[in-house]
Write a structure and sequence with these properties.
Layout lengths: L1 H13 L2 H4 L9 E6 L2 E2 L9 E2 L4 H5 L5 H9 L1 E4 L4 E5 L3 H16 L5 E2 L25 E2 L7 E2 L11 E4 L3 E7 L2 E4 L11 E2 L4 E3 L10 E2 L1 E7 H6 L7 E5 L9 E3 L5 E6 L10 E10 L3 E4 L3 E2 L6 E4 L4 E9 L4 E5 L2 H13 L3
Parallel strand pairs: 2-12, 3-23, 17-23
Antiparallel strand pairs: 1-5, 4-5, 4-15, 6-17, 7-21, 8-19, 9-10, 9-13, 10-11, 11-16, 13-14, 15-16, 18-19, 18-22, 19-20, 20-24, 22-23, 23-24
Helix pairs in contact: 1-5
Length: about 350
């Protein structure tokens, strides 16, 4: 790993920021001898995770900051058949990697990947009906509900957003890669969810590009084993491209943002959106008073009118909602996961 970290440093400082991460050597994921444990069923991730400290999160404070960062850069992956893989980050690698990224940020080189339109034609909506079923989910609405239903989901930027069968939202950041919350793929106590199939641009019963099965899910060891919400993000790899396109995404840099997803307090399978100011909360989190509800976990926190994802919605409270910030570290970690598992 030490040679790999040295290469990261050289590449980061020499390559254009947009493509630097794509030039990295891929992470080495080793097959584990144990098998994965799954929780089976659809619509299981329906409760709002609180942003306030709970006992599990408070327990993490006994660990050193560097231990948490090592776990945050260590990745775990699973296949539907239960095969497990791990990419272990070493202490020395963390220091080199983070130092290189800080140097890039200091000179204003914040990475962004552009989006692209679908290449596959959408099915017609003839005969499709909007569902009228909704799961009883606690809302995290700040005062008057500002969410607006998206009635045309087959236009930019909505056509890259979809529903995950476990009861979450995700965004295509590559044709076969769905960005979502870590708690949408793992319960944070070492067990995975099995229902991770993805339906892009769903609108009630209308599924313009159908549903794609998943081939692999990846999240951080910090989330999977310790429920550390500073590292609550994940990537779902699909068995085939959802429609050939993907959203733009990149490092957070401030401004007004939009959160769009599939709230469980609205008619089943319908997409809703709301916008507002977003601010940083420490080094890892973004917070806002944009209205959400359970089912929107994993939604992108997007700027540019919803075109560029800069964070992942994860938690809520009576005073604010929050999510995982796309830092340079998170961006480059995701790029490496995509490069490691392109299929």
């Amino acid at each position: 790993m030490r040679k790999l970290s040295a290469l990261w440093l050289v590449v980061l400082m020499s390559a254009p920021a947009t493509y630097a991460a794509q030039s990295f050597q891929t992470f080495a994921f080793g097959r584990q001898s144990v098998r994965a444990s799954f929780i089976y069923g659809d619509n299981l991730v329906t409760n709002v995770i609180p942003e306030t400290d709970d006992d599990r999160f408070a327990a993490l404070k006994v660990e050193t900051d560097i231990q948490r960062r090592v776990a945050g850069l260590t990745a775990v992956a699973v296949t539907p058949s239960g095969n497990l893989f791990e990419s272990k980050m070493e202490l020395r690698d963390v220091a080199i990697f983070e130092s290189a990224l800080k140097n890039l940020e200091a000179i204003g080189r914040l990475a962004t990947t552009g989006g692209s339109a679908p290449t596959l034609a959408a099915r017609t909506a003839t005969g499709a009906q909007l569902g009228n079923f909704s799961i009883p989910i606690p809302e995290i609405v700040q005062g008057t509900d500002q969410r607006v239903q998206v009635t045309n989901t087959v236009q930019s930027p909505y056509w890259h957003i979809g529903r995950i069968a476990v009861g979450c939202t995700g965004t295509l950041i590559a044709p076969k890669h769905v960005l979502t919350a870590g708690h949408c793929v793992s319960n944070g106590a070492g067990t995975w969810y099995s229902s991770l199939n993805f339906t892009v641009a769903q609108n009630g019963n209308y599924q313009p590009w159908g549903t794609k099965s998943w081939s692999r899910a990846i999240t951080t060891s910090a989330w999977h084993n310790n429920a550390d919400r500073n590292y609550d993000y994940a990537l779902i790899v699909l068995s085939a491209p959802a429609h050939g396109g993907n959203s733009g995404w990149g490092v957070y840099s401030g401004g007004t943002h939009t959160i769009t997803g599939y709230p469980g307090d609205k008619p089943f399978g319908t997409m809703w959106t709301a916008s507002g100011a977003v601010s940083t909360s420490g080094s890892y989190r973004l917070c806002y008073q944009i209205d959400t509800a359970g089912g929107q976990s994993g939604s992108g926190i997007a700027d540019g009118g919803g075109v560029y994802v800069r964070g992942i919605h994860t938690t809520g409270s009576s005073t604010q909602n929050c999510g995982t910030r796309l830092t340079s570290t998170v961006y480059n970690t995701l790029q490496n996961w995509i490069s490691t598992y392109p299929n």
